[in-house]
Amino acid sequence: MSWSLHSEIERRMDPTWKRVSKDKGSVVAGTDVARWLAERDVDTITIVGYMTNNCDIATAVGADELGLAAEILSDAPVATTQAWATAVTARHALPKSDLGTSATQGRAAFGA
């Protein structure tokens, strides 16, 4: 293996979490992630990653092609961090947005 998770992330991993290695930009391209999500009736994915302009955006586009909603957490313009955390804890969905609107709101909030 040419990479490894940070030891703190590895320590927090739950064995029930989906874990894959990929060789494409999108996590759904060439993996069984789409099937795994469908089996669990997932309709929205939250994307966190190293480079928004590479794998994150590729995954968002791949998710859209599969009919999944996608949010890129580092931008998260649909809610504040506190509102997002509260919604996750309460298991409530946040208001929906789209990738274009999200990008525009993120740029307005944080600059180009």
UniProtKB/TrEMBL annotation:
The coiled-coil regions, if any, are: none
Q: Which domain of life is it from?
A: Bacteria
Q: Where is the Isochorismatase-like domain?
A: 16-90
**Signal sequence range:** none
A Pfam family assignment = Isochorismatase
Which InterPro entries did the record assign? Answer: Isochorismatase-like_dom, Isochorismatase-like_sf
Q: What is this protein called?
A: Isochorismatase-like domain-containing protein
* Natural source organism: Tessaracoccus flavus
